[in-house]
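Hi R.,

Here are the chain sequences for the assembly we discussed:
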Amino acid sequence: MIENGFSFVEENYIKAVYHLNTQDGKPVSTNALADEMQTTAASVSDMLKKLSQKKVVFYQKYKGASISPKGKEIALKVIRKHRLWEVFLVDQLKFNWDEVHEVAEQLEHIKSPLLISRLDEFLGYPKYDPHGDPIPDEDGNFAQVKKEPLSVVEIGSSCQVIAVDDSSTAFLKYLDKMGISIGTKLRVEDKNEFDGSIDINLENDKSITVSPRAAENLLVATD
Amino acid sequence: MIENGFSFVEENYIKAVYHLNTQDGKPVSTNALADEMQTTAASVSDMLKKLSQKKVVFYQKYKGASISPKGKEIALKVIRKHRLWEVFLVDQLKFNWDEVHEVAEQLEHIKSPLLISRLDEFLGYPKYDPHGDPIPDEDGNFAQVKKEPLSVVEIGSSCQVIAVDDSSTAFLKYLDKMGISIGTKLRVEDKNEFDGSIDINLENDKSITVSPRAAENLLVATD
DNA sequence: GATACTATTTAGAATAATCTAAAAAAAATA
DNA sequence: TATTTTTTTTAGATTATTCTAAATAGTATC
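And here is the predicted structure of the full complex:
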């Protein structure tokens, strides 16, 4: 599987380096990468040498690796594909949030720019995946939105539900009954010291109260 | 890529053996397979030895290979996936008939029974792919329909358009103007000796005449 | 039936990705 | 700083797939 330029395995390593390196800015250690990739430090060492030659990571022996501009580009393309496929699986094929990852891990390696642009169009150019993570556009740009649980939003702030942390049927039913779904806009009216429940105002101007447990699992983007 | 049982490469060989072996019933020669797989006879020889050990093909040195029941099962699963994805690409993502093969070659190897059953449902359980080839069900059964050009259908026979052999924009525009599309039912009323054109009767009882060129490229299933 | 030609298989080597065990470097500790 | 511990790298193998070149089997021809 080399057709395009990078093998599935290489793409996964690039993604992992990007992911870990972007989290804390520091170079990624061999062990951290081995852990992420579920493999041995020796294998990682070999692979980093190769990826360094291919200019997708910066790597110095014993000093760890960081992502290069070229590597970042590749990583973001793979991430874009991963997240678009997740949207497809959830929105169109009725998968649950927690069932999509494994399949998307496979689909993200399909090579076809046309397929991805058509899929993007078909899905209505979604900006976030079902977990609320932003989807990079063709150029690798994405809106970095801070995704936080409803429970930490300040009183008076407006926000929009972009994901849930719990995808149990029970929770989904609860949300349905409350009239809340992905995309719902709301404003926090009050927080009840007593039990931690939160009063919110929905788009239709209806006011409801959600439990602390629900507020913990409702991920929102504040305006 | 061994997760499930067979690698991408192995699946492709199995598909090729099934395909060639089913065409004429005779064992497939090493060279024929090498030709189909765009590789060397030596590679095929090695692979056949392996696939024989894995019981997916029957193979005797110098005597060629044929598909085993286990191999057939695998081949049909891959073919099912390939054709369902082709339907998705054409029906949902607006690909042309001739743009789908390469992408479907990749998608057919994605491992997820749930994905395929959901996709099948999403597409409305299609029986044929955009080229008019039948799609096997989960058990590997498929309606074998003889797909023939409209030009050979006898006068008086009824049939249904299931595919086209030419997917040029020009032809598609022509069909559109004539009110013909995949699924259109029609009856052959007469054939004009003079120029080979054919008079047909459509569902709405309208009678039209199609050119011999069009009749050649319209693939139909006779009732 | 012997010879020539073609098809197929084997031998040996290459690349990609992986592993275990041993060596070397870096970090932690005393 | 010297020593111990941890991390990382290298060395040497292994599996999967492929290739070229050489050997062998099968088929065709005279």
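The interface with chain B takes residues 1, 8, 89, 92-95, 99, 102-103, 106-107, 110-112, 114-115, 118-119, 122 of chain A (CB under 8 Å). The mean pLDDT of chain A is 93.

Let me know if anything looks off.

Best,
T.
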